[in-house]
């Protein structure tokens, strides 16, 4: 009885009676008699199929397994491996037993473990790494199979989302890349390059990639396609769009010749992204359509060969403002990553998903995706994804928080910027630009303007991707208008218009039209600019931007004493704010309603006017709303203390705020009262109240 129970525990969660006979080493009649007793006591039950048996509870099996003496357990595992191998069981079933007893006295164990690791590489990379690591340990240093086992281990660590471990083992396997590479080592070099890229070591990744291309037997080698794809991404991060396009096109040609469907889809998406950076909108749209068709007809099992292809497709669709398709493909990629343990792509997928949801106003999903991406990227030592996810989380926090303070969001963005360490890569520039964008949205015009121009390399914004420039020029135009710098506002607005002509996507054109609103003189033209901007954002389901534009339009209409039209705009904005789950935008809509009915009391606990947060203050048309009555209670407190001569730090200590928050309050006060400094503010407060 005991021998049968122990043999069953060693065989696994499910077992067959005929397998128990050789493993237990007992006659068949005794095994069947023992099973009868176990069944009557309900210790063993039928599992799904009548041919399969299982313990009543997995915990019971674990107790029996742990209680089996070590020597007997090893003997049972060895018998189980031999029996399963003789029956032609899958390599993973045999390797599971061999891994428990593998030793130098059984050289055949190395091959069994390697075959098992290869079989589960895409479906359970952590398990594959465990088996490959045992194979490496058992293979003698002089045995050429050791290098192959190390490359397999590096690939498994890479897929499991541990690029630092993959890099270490691959560098040990490939002490020199200066010599011509045989087949296995060329693939190892490609994986090593991928690990370096994931860790943000772009010069090293580029050097390994170029050397690998020179060392493989011919440019038609299948590994060359993978290397070209990695080189395209490295060149993209370096800002070399021409090199990125060249490598992406080469990767696509090779993928069509040598690689399965998912690799082709990823190469198409990579080529689309590279074309878009050079202004090839039509070409990018065609390539993205083809990539989406390839991905959508593939089974989940087929896509496991290259889950990065779905990420690349999602990124291309995001850049083309196909937010619904991007979200669909990114969610599918995230689900496959979680189900299979291919964690290497999950941080990138979640960061792209966070940005997609932020653009469409799905703030809750954006926040959760950014938080998970940040956690996973930190664990995997991925500074690029971690910083990107943190700054995206800061933006989601800004719009989804109920508090009237932006301190939490700004603090998260500050932490993200620390990770960039003034690095020149595009992801680092994008993080710094996102922080500046956050400051501009909070009304910190001068600091935000300065940081953005420093990060992006001047007013032309050459440092950021072309698709993001128009949005940033619109913010710069808003800041310039807020500071009264009409010439700068006009320059930024014209750049935004040129950016929209270069990349004529509806959302990009909407940003340009909103920038044009800043400098348009005739009232009718200003109204048309806002209307077209709101329509453009609406067509692309960019609900957050549509809501902000409608609030700006409502504010303009209130200033023009056109209350009925303002109410219609506010109703639409309130509906969008609820859909986005943005208390901040809802609070601004409520404040505008209060301005429509000045006698209506302010709701208790309500947030202050959040004009600073939309970054959309119309400073040329609100003369009726710029008196002291427009100040919130907190702004009144700050204004009175500032006029009394207290410094920002003194005000911060008195009101228990941060100095940054005090400066933000002062910036809003200056704009609302139309004063340039504290002296003018003190004089304004001495005048009769407006």
Automatic annotation (TrEMBL):
Flavoprotein is among the record's keywords: no
Organism from which the protein derives: Peterkaempfera bronchialis
Xref: Pfam families: GerE
Protein name: LuxR family transcriptional regulator
GO biological process: one example: regulation of DNA-templated transcription
Alphabetic keyword roster: DNA-binding, Transcription, Transcription regulation
Domain (HTH luxR-type) ranges: 624-689
MF annotations from Gene Ontology: DNA binding
Xref: InterPro entries: Sig_transdc_resp-reg_C-effctor (IPR016032), TPR-like_helical_dom_sf (IPR011990), Tscrpt_reg_LuxR_C (IPR000792), WH-like_DNA-bd_sf (IPR036388)
Range of residues in the leader sequence: none
């Amino acid at each position: 009885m005991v021998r049968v129970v122990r043999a069953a525990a060693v065989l696994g969660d499910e077992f067959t009676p005929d397998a128990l006979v050789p493993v237990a080493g007992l006659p068949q009649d005794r095994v069947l008699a023992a099973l009868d007793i176990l069944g009557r006591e309900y210790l063993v039950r039928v599992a799904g199929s009548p041919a399969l048996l299982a313990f009543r509870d997995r915990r019971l099996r674990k107790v029996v397994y742990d209680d089996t003496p070590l020597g007997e357990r090893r003997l049972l595992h060895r018998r189980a491996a031999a029996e399963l191998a003789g029956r032609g069981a899958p390599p993973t079933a045999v390797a599971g037993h061999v891994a428990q007893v593998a030793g130098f006295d059984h050289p055949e164990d190395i091959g069994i473990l390697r075959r098992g690791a290869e079989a589960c590489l895409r479906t359970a990379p952590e398990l594959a790494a465990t088996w490959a690591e045992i194979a490496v340990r058992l293979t003698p240093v002089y045995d050429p199979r050791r290098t192959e086992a190390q490359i397999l281990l590096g690939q498994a660590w890479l897929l499991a989302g541990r690029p630092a471990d993959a890099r270490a083992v691959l560098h040990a396997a490939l002490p020199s890349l200066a010599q011509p590479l045989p087949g296995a080592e060329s693939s190892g070099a490609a994986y090593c390059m991928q690990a370096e890229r994931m860790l943000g070591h772009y010069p090293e990744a580029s050097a390994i990639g170029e050397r690998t291309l020179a060392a493989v037997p011919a440019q038609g080698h299948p590994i060359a396609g993978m290397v070209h794809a990695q080189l395209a991404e490295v060149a993209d991060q370096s800002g070399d769009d021409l090199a990125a396009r060249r490598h992406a096109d080469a990767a696509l040609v090779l993928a069509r010749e040598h690689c399965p469907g998912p690799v082709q889809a990823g190469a198409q998406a990579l080529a689309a992204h590279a074309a878009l950076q050079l202004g090839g909108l039509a070409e990018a749209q065609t390539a993205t359509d083809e990539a989406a068709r390839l991905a959508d007809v593939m089974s989940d099992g087929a896509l496991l060969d290259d889950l990065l292809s779905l990420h690349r497709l999602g990124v291309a669709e995001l850049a083309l403002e196909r937010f619904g398709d991007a979200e669909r493909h990114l969610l599918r990629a995230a689900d496959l990553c979680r189900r299979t343990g291919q964690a290497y792509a999950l941080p990138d997928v979640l960061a792209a998903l966070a940005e997609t949801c932020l653009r469409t106003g799905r703030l809750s999903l954006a926040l959760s995706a950014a938080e998970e991406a940040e956690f996973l990227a930190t664990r995997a030592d991925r500074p690029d994804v971690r910083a990107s996810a943190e700054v995206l989380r800061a933006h989601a926090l800004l719009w989804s928080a109920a508090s009237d303070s932006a301190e939490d969001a700004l603090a998260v963005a500050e932490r993200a910027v620390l990770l960039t360490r003034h690095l020149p890569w595009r992801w680092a520039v994008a993080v710094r630009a996102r922080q500046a964008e956050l400051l501009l949205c909070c009304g910190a015009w001068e600091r935000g303007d300065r940081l953005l121009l420093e990060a992006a390399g001047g007013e032309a914004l050459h440092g950021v991707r072309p698709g993001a420039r128009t949005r940033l020029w619109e913010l710069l135009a808003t800041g310039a208008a807020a500071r009264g710098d009409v010439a700068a506002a006009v320059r930024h607005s014209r750049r935004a218009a040129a950016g929209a002509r270069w990349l004529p996507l509806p959302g990009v054109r909407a940003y340009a039209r909103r920038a044009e609103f800043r400098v348009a003189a005739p009232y009718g033209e200003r109204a048309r600019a806002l209307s077209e901007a709101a329509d453009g954002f609406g067509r692309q389901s960019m609900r957050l931007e549509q809501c902000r534009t409608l609030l700006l339009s409502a504010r303009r209409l209130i200033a023009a004493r056109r209350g009925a039209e303002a109410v219609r705009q506010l109703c639409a904005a309130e509906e969008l704010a609820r859909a986005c789950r943005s208390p901040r935008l809802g609070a601004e809509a409520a404040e505008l309603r209060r301005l429509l009915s000045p006698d209506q009391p302010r709701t208790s606990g309500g947030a202050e006017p959040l004009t600073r947060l939309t970054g959309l203050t119309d400073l040329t048309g609100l003369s009726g709303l710029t008196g002291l009555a427009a100040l919130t209670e907190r702004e009144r407190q700050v204004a009175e203390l500032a006029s009394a001569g207290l410094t920002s730090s003194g005000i911060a200590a008195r009101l228990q705020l941060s100095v940054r928050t005090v400066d933000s309050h002062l910036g809003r006060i200056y704009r609302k009262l139309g004063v340039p400094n504290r002296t003018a503010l003190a004089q304004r407060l001495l005048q009769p109240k407006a």
